[in-house]
Amino acid sequence: MALKAVILIGGPQKGTRFRPLSFEVPKPLFPVAGVPMVQHHIEACAKVPGMKEILLVGFYQPHEALSRFLLSAQQEFKIPIRYLQEYAALGTGGGIYHFRDQILSGGAEAFFVLNADVCSEFPLQEMLEFWQGHRDAHSFVILGTTANRTQALNYGCIVANADTQEVQHYVEKPSTFVSEIINCGIYLFTPAIFQHIGKVFQRNQQELVLEESSNGWQRAEVIRLEQDVFTALAGSGKLYVYKTDGFWSQIKSAGSAIYASRLYLNQYSKSHPERLAQNKPGGPIIRGNVYIHPTASIDSTAVLGPNVSIGEGVTVGAGVRVRESIVLHGASLHDHTCVLNTIVGWDSTIGRWARVEGTPSDPNPNDPYAKIDSETLFRDGRLTPSITILGCSVTIPAEVVILNSIVLPHKELSRSYKNQIIL
């Protein structure tokens, strides 16, 4: 069966909650558990038998880092991977509608659509088998998972028939409780979806003609799959939900990247044991799941883990303690520093005996259905305690403490800070 996959990677005005990290690389290339965020998606798609091509759709300008990444991913996964650039932000439905000819070329019978800002076990093969079991060639599948009642309001909520899993009702971010089954942002479509998106496009065009006073800033091409298409398809016998018990989380804020890293590192014990560091004579002390890039230089007295990812060319000195953190390439942690719940930016330096610490924004560990809260940066005029983020090329002097703070790139700090955004 000929299949394709489309990964929606968004563009520069999105990912604002991911700053200052998204200043340096496009968000989809941010490393989570040692590899670019979107590589996890590509890997999952490449494993599905019959996958002919993977398309990335977004409105980033052609970017050297993106081109390099796509080239190496093509070589690694032996599958054609292309980037299709939108001329503007067209929404989750508008982007695939705009490039429908490219998606359908080569006679794809079905195609996956994945949002780049989710981390998941990606049960694509299971979704495919579930869809094939329905025998309706024109039905579509949404991947769903269970959330708790309060958090479900932050997502697209799905009411489905308990026997057939047909979606009867779909509401994006409802104001009152609708269902505990939420949309994971991963879909399986057939070419028939374009007729439904096309109807929305025509309706938008007619409305724009009627509203000549709209100043021309609205575009008929901006179509949102969730609000515009799924809401209309629910109850028509065309839309089904495949529920997964596997891990799933959104990656909206930088704090959620550390949580996503933990989920992926956990999965590596089954999928990529070679990516996990082991305790070896003369090597650092490893606790739990840790990824260390082969080019990193780490003192044997350092203690790393659990949930630590160390990037390319990182230097870690004697007696350093790192836990629940991502250290990006070229960073240097001098002797006896302590780094907890922190993302250390590219080429940043932390001086001796300094302590850099954040507050984790993890889901409630006692609730199996809890999801990560997409925290607002401020609450009641104060910075919400969250993980600490150092932008690229930040220098932290020796013996200071940085707590729950965000430091923008290219800053040389001279003292300790707590609960600050350092501009």
Write a structural description.
By secondary structure, this protein is of the alpha/beta class. Helix content is 22%, strand content 28%. It contains eight helices and 34 strands. The strands form eight sheets. It has a seven-stranded mixed beta sheet, with helices on both faces. Strand 2 (31-32) and strand 3 form a beta hairpin. Helix 3 (91-98) packs across helix 7 (225-233).
Shape: globular
State mean pLDDT (0 to 100 scale). 92
State the end-to-end CA separation. 53 Å
Q: Per DSSP, what share of the residues sits in E-state strands of 2 or more residues?
A: 25-35%
Count the helices. How many?
8
Category from helices, strands and their pairing: alpha/beta
Task: Give a quick precis of the structure.
The protein is of the alpha/beta class.
Give short descriptive properties of this protein.
seven-stranded parallel beta sheet; single chain; 423 residues; seven-stranded mixed beta sheet; alpha/beta
Describe the secondary-structure layout.
Layout: E1 3-10, E2 31-32, E3 35-36, H1 37-46, E4 51-58, H2 64-77, E5 81-85, H3 91-98, H4 100-104, E6 110-115, E7 118-120, H5 124-132, E8 140-146, E9 156-160, E10 167-172, E11 181-189, H6 193-210, H7 225-233, E12 239-243, E13 248-250, H8 254-271, E14 285-286, E15 290-292, E16 297-298, E17 303-304, E18 308-310, E19 315-316, E20 321-323, E21 325-327, E22 332-333, E23 338-340, E24 342-344, E25 349-350, E26 355-357, E27 378-379, E28 382-383, E29 388-390, E30 395-396, E31 401-403, E32 406-407, E33 417-418, E34 421-422
Parallel strand pairs: 1-4, 1-6, 4-5, 8-12, 14-17, 15-18, 16-19, 17-20, 18-21, 19-22, 20-23, 21-24, 22-25, 23-26, 24-29, 25-30, 26-31, 29-32, 31-33, 32-34
Antiparallel strand pairs: 2-3, 6-11, 7-13, 8-11, 9-10, 27-28
